[in-house]
Design brief:
This protein is α+β, with helices and mostly antiparallel strands and about 240 residues long. The protein has two domains: about 100 residues; about 130 residues, Alpha-Beta Plaits. The protein has six helices and eight strands, in the order H-H-E-H-H-E-E-E-E-E-E-H-H-E. Strands 3-2-7-1-8 form a five-stranded antiparallel β-sheet. Strands 4-5-6 form a three-stranded antiparallel β-sheet, covered by helices on one side. Strand 4 and strand 5 form a beta hairpin. Helix 4 packs across helix 5.
Length: about 240
């Protein structure tokens, strides 16, 4: 009986090894299959994101049209009252500095663009991409240079505007914007361009263009048209804080 016992034991180890090999092979094949599917899934997700962004853009445009129509109706009703006419005149004077009213005039367009190189590491996502901080610094530099009105990719910048990152996206007034980023500023083209060139952010981009391939350019424009803040971003009511 002893040989039979030894024979049974000798078959156990090969069977275990065979099972382990099958499991490892199956895992490797499944992992390779998933890797092969990643490009197609990434393309599908990118297409879905672009579709959603297009839809958001269309809805935002429709909202702006309705908001403009509402303002026109309010103004027509206001003209029937002398008191309201005075209030409307005051509102018009405050429209530009508050960014509520649309603006038109000469100025500059600052274009920032991500590098064409593909990120290979987590650090590359920062070095090869325009960051929300970069946009904020450029916008602040233009304000300091004397800009009267500013917009980023068509989104008006005002006192309540937030320029921040959400994942790998940059949001302006909670709307996603993508590279290239165009910061349009109305004001004296010479003063704006000169003031921007004298800032630290401009000097940094001169280096980043050569090291990382980031895009940075400034051009003058004689007829810029910037929309007003959308209704959702306007400050409708304000009152002083009560003491105590």
């Amino acid at each position: 009986m002893q040989p039979a016992v030894r024979g049974a034991g000798s078959l156990v180890v090969p069977m275990i090894l065979l099972s382990l090999g099958f499991l490892v092979t199956s895992a490797v094949v499944e992992e390779r299959r998933r890797e092969e599917q990643l490009p197609s899934r990434a393309a599908e997700l990118l297409e879905l994101i672009r579709g959603r962004e297009a839809g958001i853009g269309e809805l935002s445009a429709e909202a702006r049209k309705l908001s403009t129509r509402l303002v026109e109706l309010q103004r027509s009703r206001a003209l029937e009252s002398e008191r309201l006419r005075g209030a409307l005149a005051s509102l018009n004077r405050l429209g530009l500095p508050s960014s509520v009213a649309s603006a038109r005039g000469p100025g500059v367009v600052v274009e920032l663009a991500d590098s064409e190189a593909s990120p290979q590491t987590r650090g590359d996502l920062t070095d090869l991409r325009i960051q929300d901080l970069d946009l904020r610094l450029v916008v602040n530099a233009l304000w300091q240079a004397g800009a009267e009105a500013i917009a980023v990719n068509g989104h008006r910048v005002g006192a309540t505007t937030a320029i921040r990152a959400a994942g790998e996206r940059i949001l302006v007034n909670f709307a996603p914007v993508i590279s290239p980023y165009r910061v349009s500023a109305i004001g004296s083209p010479d003063a704006l361009e000169s003031g921007l060139r004298d800032t630290e952010i401009s000097s940094q981009f001169d280096v980043w263009e050569q090291v990382y391939g980031l895009g940075f350019g400034v051009r003058s424009a004689q007829d810029l048209r910037l929309p007003g803040l959308e209704a959702a971003e306007r400050l409708e009511w304000a009152r002083p804080v009560e003491e105590g």
